[in-house]
Structures are given as structure tokens and as C-alpha cells.
Amino acid sequence: MGETPSSGWRKPFSSVSLFWRTFFLLSILLIGSILAWLQTLRSLEFEPRAVQTAQLLASQVNLSRAALVYADGIARISLIKTMKDEEGLRIVPREATDSFESRDNDAFSRRVIAELGSRLGQGTIVASRMNGQPGLWVSFVIDGDDYWLQTDQTKFNPAGGTTWLIWLGVAAVLSLAGAALIAGLINRPLKELSFAASRMRDGDFEASQLDEHVNTSEIREVNIGFNRMAQKLAKIEQDRALMLAGISHDLRTPLARLRLETEMSVSNLEARAHMASDITQLDAIIDKFLDYARPDRVKLTPVVLGDVIDSCIYSMRKLPDVKIEVDLEEDLLVLADEVELGRVITNLLENARRYGKSVNTGIADIRISALSRDKWVLMKVRDRGIGVAPSQLYQLTQPFFRGEAARTAANGAGLGLAIVEKTMQRMGGTFQLANSNTGGLSAHLRLQRATRF
């Protein structure tokens, strides 16, 4: 089925952070409120301003007409000159040939003209230009003769004007700044909680402590609960590591005695060899427990990947049932702990040697490859065995889980791949398993790329 338009809009919006979602919603609410109030004020001011403007123009016309009517011929000329110089009013006769541009291009102008018509007569004309001369021209009649009164255009000011736009811009800027501040204050505790959760996920329990003295009661309760949870998890982790290390340490003493007694008291060479093998296997399992119980924090330094791989495969190249091929970019540097990285590669090689042998040849054909991509180094360890059932892939990194092939051998603790995943997380990388298209299992590792020493 095709993707609906609504789902196409939801996907980009779902990737927006909570801060920007809150900011956008608050901005829409505030800007909408400002526009609504602006429209309301303009509507309430429209009629009074139109009536006031018409009354002012009508008063100017009536006063000018009265002054001209009651002045004699000589005084009228002086009065017209004084009105022009002192008040900015100009009175000229209206001719039939006059051309003018009527000022009725908006609702405010039409309302003023209608009001002037009721005060000065229905034939009153209001023009913005007369015979090419700009100004505010109003027609009127004196004793049957038509005249034009030119006055200042600023008296004919529509509702709002640039003042409304300035205040609207100021209000919008202040509203957006307030929305950003409010969104930041709302999302700050969530951001701190997210950071603390990520630190706790990485095993850094000390850096995941939140402020328990914030003013907001709900946030304070969440922070207190989170801190108590982090403390309990840290205690559980310490107890687990201590228990595993203690058990592993205490088991080594009786195992050493068993090995010594086996070598000295068992006369049958074959039986002695089997017992020694079992003791060696138990000792290896103890090592796995110690590896898994290792602390989560490691010190990362630039490491030459090729050198670590060479040291790991040195002893395995002599084995008759293993064939290893290495394909690396030159001078690959990764940010890792050299010992931990060696343990990861060794575990993967040992896993491939045990369970990745070809059914036809009985040889574990292992290929190691690595290349750089931006800030990462991508490494792959692949064998050509029978692979793993897709339903079991995600379980292989679980502690103490063993696949079907491993269960038949039953010679491990089921911690090898779990240790690999945990170690990769400690070093800031990732680890994934997948069945190869050409057969076998592929281990994909992503390590941080380091710069030159």
C-alpha cells in the first residue's frame, strides 16, 4: 500500500526534538493570540477613527467655507493666503475639466467618504490627486460655486498603519523569545534525565546523579527516584562483579590441587589426559567469568588495528583446522584498549574456529577485513560454517546462551559473545551478528577511528 500524505508529514515531525516541538506549539499559540487581539482592536477602532477623521475634515471645510462667506472681497484674498501659509489649507475653484483620483480604494476610505457625505452633502468627493497634484482634496460648495479644499494627507490616516506593524513585530519577537525560554525551562529536566540515563546505560553510575533540590516538586520526585534506582543498580553491579570474582578466585585453589593430584596419582595416561583436559576447561570457564565481571570503564588510546590482529592470529595460524585471511586498509588506527580489543578478536576467532568449520572440509575458513568510514573503522570477522538460525541471532550475545552447534560440544560457558558485546560497548563501539550471504556467520564491529599519534 502507498504511503498516505498524513503519514509522510508525521515522519519528519516525529524526528523533531521535544524542545522544538514545544517551541513551535507555544509560538503558534502566542502568534495566533496576538493576531486575534490585533484584529479585535482594529475592529473596535475602525468605526471611531473613521467618524473622527470625517468630523475633522468636515470641520475644516465648514470653517473655511464660513470664513470665506463672511469675509469681503479684499479680506478673502488675504484670508486664503493666511490659511495656506499658517494652516496648510489651500482653496481653489473646482472646474468641470478637473481630473482627480478618488480615494475610495479601501474600506476605511469608503467609510470616511460616506460619513463626509452625510455631513457635507452626498456629492462630496475625496481625492488623493487633483490635476496631477498630490494631496488630500475635498470638494465643497459656497453659494452654488464648487471649490476644492486641499489639506494634509496625514489627517486621513487608516486604522493601524505602520504603528500596528511595529507593535506586531515587537510582540512577535518577545513572544518567540518567551516561547524559547519556556520551552528550554520545560525541557531542561528531561534533557538532564536523558543524559543521566545514557550515562547509567554505559555503566557510569556516579555521573548519573540528578539534582534532588530543584524547586519543582514533580521533577524533584523524579530525580530522587532516579538517583535511588541508580544507586541500587550500582550496588547490584558491584555485588555481581564481586560475587563472580570471588567465586572464580576461590575455585582456582581446589582446581590447582586437583591438577597436582591428577598428575601424581593417576597412572592411566589416557584417564590422566582426560582429567587434565577437564581441569583446563574449568580453568578457561573461570577466566570467562572474570572477563565478564570486569569493570565497565576502560582507558582508550590510539591502537594500530593490524598489530592487534597479528598478535591474535599468530598462534592460530599453526593449527591444522584453521585458515585465516586478513584484508585491512593500511595504518588503521582505532581508539580502544589494546588488551580489551585483543580479547574481543580472540573470542571471535575462537568462536569461528569451534563452530564455523566447513561441513565439507572440516576447516574453519576465517576472513578478517576492516576499512575506515568517516569517524569509524568497520571490521568484519566471517567464517564459512553453517551459520545460525535467524531466530537465534539476537540470543547469541546473551550470557550463558549457546546455539545448537555449541550445545553439542558443551565445552564453554556461553559467555564469549556476551563478553565481546560488553567490551565493545565499554570502548564506545557496536557489535552485531548476521548470517553471511555466501554462508557462515559474520561478526560486524564498529570501532572509533583514532588520529595519528
UniProtKB/TrEMBL annotation:
Location in the cell: Cell inner membrane
Tell me which PROSITE patterns the record gives. HAMP, HIS_KIN
Q: Which reaction does it catalyse?
A: ATP + protein L-histidine = ADP + protein N-phospho-L-histidine
In what residue span(s) does the Histidine kinase domain sit? 246-451
Q: Which residues form the HAMP domain?
A: 184-238
One GO molecular function term of this record is: ATP binding
Documented EC number(s): 2.7.13.3
- Does the record carry DNA repair as a key word? no
Alphabetized InterPro entries for the sequence: 2C_sensor_his_kinase, HAMP_dom, HATPase_C_sf, HATPase_dom, His_kinase_dom, HisK_dim/P_dom, HisK_dim/P_sf, RisS_PPD
Tell me where on the tree of life, at the top rank, the source sits: Bacteria
Task: Identify its membrane topology class.
Answer: Multi-pass membrane protein
Q: Does the keyword Acetylation apply?
A: no
Q: What class of enzyme is it?
A: transferase
Q: Which UniProt keywords apply?
A: ATP-binding, Cell inner membrane, Cell membrane, Kinase, Membrane, Nucleotide-binding, Phosphoprotein, Transferase, Transmembrane, Transmembrane helix, Two-component regulatory system
Q: Which residues cross the membrane?
A: 18-38, 164-186
Xref: PANTHER family: SENSOR HISTIDINE KINASE ENVZ, SENSOR PROTEIN CREC
Q: What is this protein called?
A: histidine kinase
Q: Which organism is it from?
A: Rhodoferax potami
